[in-house]
Amino acid sequence: MSGPRKERIAAVLGASRQGSGYLLGPRLVLTAAHVVVGSDSVHAIVPEGRGRIPCRPVWQGTRENCDVALLLAADDLVAPETAAGWGPVRWGQTSDLKPRPNCQAIGFPAVQRSGTGQLDSEQLVGTLKPGSNMVRGGYVLDLVHTPPAPRRDGGSPWAGMSGAALFDGELLVGVVTTDPDGWQHGRLTAVPATAIHIVAGFYDAYFEHLGQLPTLEDAGRSRAPRAGFESDYRSYVERNYGELRIFGLDFSRSDHAQWPLDTAYLSLELSHQSSQDRADLLETVPRYDVSSGRQRVESALSGKRRVLLRGLAGSGKTTLIQWLAITAARDDFSYRLGHLDDCVPFVLPLRTLIRQGALPSPGNFLAATGTPLSPPPDWAEEVMRSGRALLLIDGVDEIPERDRERTQEWLTGLFESPRVRWRLDSM
User: Fold this and answer.
1) In this structure, are 140 and 239 located in the same domain?
2) What is the domain count for the chain?
3) CA 23 vs CA 172, 187, 231: distances in Å
């Protein structure tokens, strides 16, 4: 389905303001912060939903830096069967200045309020213009509609649209916040999704209440040929890493020296290491040891974005990397690892890469690891920018001393990339 879903569009009712919102989950509402700030009482309601339900803010930016908030309803705003078919909201960003026609936002503006005060919805369609408002950093939506007449009290006829989700196709690219002066109600501005994602606390609140992390897709590029390549690449990863090889045993009398990972893989158990015993290479990364039994790997890695894994030779580190790679290729993670959904795996064996000379940039990941596929231009870079990269780096402890400094610089560069969804290093 393209664009917003009608059963996820909400009206948000603050103590002194009314706005709009969009359901990220059955209870989590995305809206504009100025609609609810300072309100002792906030409610949300979805047409054909479960009625007017009280909400409380669980995260919000400020009007100056990010006029957006997340509200948690006291109960589900829609019936369970309505929400059952929902997938995660897909967030988007623009990477160029190309105007994006046919973008849309649906909300509950004042111009649609009846004489008796009853709210109704309005679907606004327009052109998103990334080249406008670049200094202030907001998105501009120039409307294709004939602007409505001003209200008699001088207020905006679009009052009440604040908090409406702005969509470019299937991607949620921003949140409507203002009807700017000087444009005769023919333009709205919005907070870009990129600005929302970088504000402190947003990812934490999102994960706490939805069990997954949001990612940003590139709305400025055609994804059709890239989607075809990505499907081929996922199939390759599944084939290449889908078998478990056992070394050190005599298989001369056996027809099989390897088994399908699906049937041979047993979930590891990990123990968390104290902050006093950090690896020198990655001092700020949560570290785990493969152990005889502390915590299942799915639970230990749940919600984590970067992990350093230690273990003796043969303890299962490389096998875990294989399992993560093929599970990501199939997009088949359990709910505990749901924050890795839609990730694209890159398996990077340091013992091989270091022998090739210069360590690879993202655009050379596939060639450096011998992947027999030729990606579209800038494909890997786009995956990194969109936040869908899952980096699986094997063999940190196998780097010769003479190569450790340049390896550390390379790892630090990957570690500091704000767009990498998840990274595991093993040693």
Assistant:
1) no
2) 2
3) 12, 24, 30
Helix axes 224-240, 317-330, angle to 10 degrees: 140
For residue 423, what pLDDT is reported?
Answer: 65
What percent of the chain stands above pLDDT 70? Answer: 80
pLDDT of residue 76: 97
Q: Are residues 115 and 228 in the same domain?
A: no
Q: Quick one: DSSP state of residue 321?
A: H
Cα–Cα–Cα angle for 385, 211, 76, nearest 5°?
125
The half-sphere exposure of 267 on its side-chain side, counting CA atoms within 13 A, is 12
Q: What CA–CA distance (Å, rounded) separates 24 from 5?
A: 11
Under the banding of pLDDT at 50, 70 and 90, the label for residue 92 is very high
264 and 347 share one domain: yes
For 12, the token pair is 């948000």
What is the structure's pLDDT at 278?
A: 37
β-bridge partners, 308: 287, 425
CA gap 388, 218 in Å, rounded: 11
Token pair for 96? 């160029």
- The more confidently predicted of residues 72 and 327 is 72
- Kindly state the average pLDDT of the residues 140-159: 84
Contact between residue 5 and residue 33 where contact means Cβ atoms under 8 Å apart: no
Alpha helices in 52-192 (DSSP H): 80-83
Distance CA 36, CA 13 (A): 8
The residue-averaged pLDDT of 72-85 equals: 93
Do 203 and 252 lie in a common domain? Answer: no
CATH of residue 352's domain is 3.40.50.300
Could you give the CA distance from residue 418 to residue 384 in angstroms, rounded to a whole number?
Answer: 9
Distances (CA, A) of 66 to 96, 208, 280, 353: 22, 20, 37, 42
Instruction: Provide the domain limits for residue 189.
Output: 6-218
Residues 306 and 256 grouped into a single domain: yes
Write the Ramachandran bin of 163: left for phi over 0, alpha for psi from -120 to 50, otherwise beta.
Answer: left
Nearest to 95 by CA among 164, 168, 180, 187: 168
Q: Is there a single domain that holds both residue 232 and residue 363?
A: yes
Written as six digits, the tokens of 16 are 């002194």
pLDDT digits (tens, 9 = 90+) for 288-308: 454 544 567 677 777 677 777
CATH number at residue 183: 2.40.10.120
Residues in the chain: 427
